[in-house]
Write a structure and sequence with these properties.
45% of the residues lie in helices and 17% in strands. By secondary structure, it is of the alpha+beta class. It folds into 2 domains: 63 residues, Arc Repressor Mutant, subunit A (Orthogonal Bundle); 182 residues, Beta-Lactamase (2-Layer Sandwich). α1 crosses α3. The longest helix has 17 residues. It starts with a helix and ends in a 30-residue tail after the last helix.
């Protein structure tokens, strides 16, 4: 069955939005037209629609387009659905102040990690981690701060999920990182630039992780007692009302939560 004109127009709008969302630099009409294979006039109409609705904006008032405020608002609406977003911030501020390192919190979203909050330390010159960042659990130390502390059956299910979606997991590396993290009670990044501690419900369910980043985590180990102290204080608050801290997506099987990492909007600063 042929698509109606209205449906085709809507599809073109989303094609343009997806392209701009996954491109680092602002794009003009001609470049967008070339990449999506649509006439310049069609692209122009899509850009006007997206600009008027706040999904795209002109870069420095030039005829080149980048993401507008609407994706950021949707991003923030998502993270604010987690009570941990607001509850964790005083603890992250305390951690950043006491250690002078950047602290952030990542929560489980199925088999992915979603960065909910972050506080920059005085030692941080430029940090790439942003509010709303999403990644498979094994792809960074914050995610490993959750994945390593799941039970063996869950880790096996994660590996099966990763294989189904075409994400490569180095099994020996994962096994070693999991064993080391469980032994120490904390996950260390392979390059020595960060650590992550699991944040649990009273029943042991892993909700999130607190990650601490540093240019040289070896010299920051002197603060290890503070890392655990702050994490334990957050867990104590969670224990006062565990149900309130459940993920709003906890009722969905992790295998059913699929995120196209190439098409999500770039995250924003917390």
């Amino acid at each position: 069955m042929a698509r109606t004109a209205v449906n085709s127009s809507a599809i073109h709008v989303f094609e343009v939005l997806r392209l701009v969302a996954r491109t680092d630099e602002p794009l003009g009409v001609s470049e967008i037209s070339r990449r999506v294979g649509l006439p310049a006039s069609t692209v122009y109409r899509a850009l006007i629609t997206l600009e008027e609705t706040g999904y795209l904006a002109r870069h420095q008032n030039m005829p080149r387009y980048e993401l507008g405020q609407m994706p950021q608002l949707l991003n923030r609406a998502l993270v604010h659905r987690f009570r941990l977003h607001a509850a964790s911030r005083p603890y992250l501020y305390r951690l950043a102040e006491m250690t002078e390192e950047t602290a952030s919190l990542m929560v489980r979203l199925g088999w992915y990690g979603l960065r909910l909050a972050g506080v920059y330390g005085s030692h941080d010159i430029y940090h790439r981690e942003r509010l709303g960042e999403v990644a498979p659990l094994h792809a960074g130390v914050a995610g490993m701060g959750m994945l390593a502390f799941l039970d063996d059956a869950s880790i096996a299910a994660y590996r099966a999920f990763a294989a189904r979606i075409g994400v490569e997991v180095d099994a020996p590396v994962l096994e070693t990182a999991t064993r080391d993290a469980r032994s120490a009670g904390i996950a260390y990044s392979s390059d020595g630039s960060g650590v992550a501690l699991p944040v649990r419900q009273p029943d042991g369910t892993v909700l999130a992780s607190i990650a601490i980043s540093a240019s040289d985590i070896g010299s920051a180990v002197e603060h290890e007692a503070i890392w655990f102290e702050v994490r334990d204080a957050l867990e104590a608050e969670i224990a006062l009302d565990p149900a309130a801290f459940d993920s709003p997506f906890a009722h969905i099987s992790p295998d059913e939560i699929m995120i196209d990492l190439d098409r999500i909007a770039p995250p924003v600063r917390s």
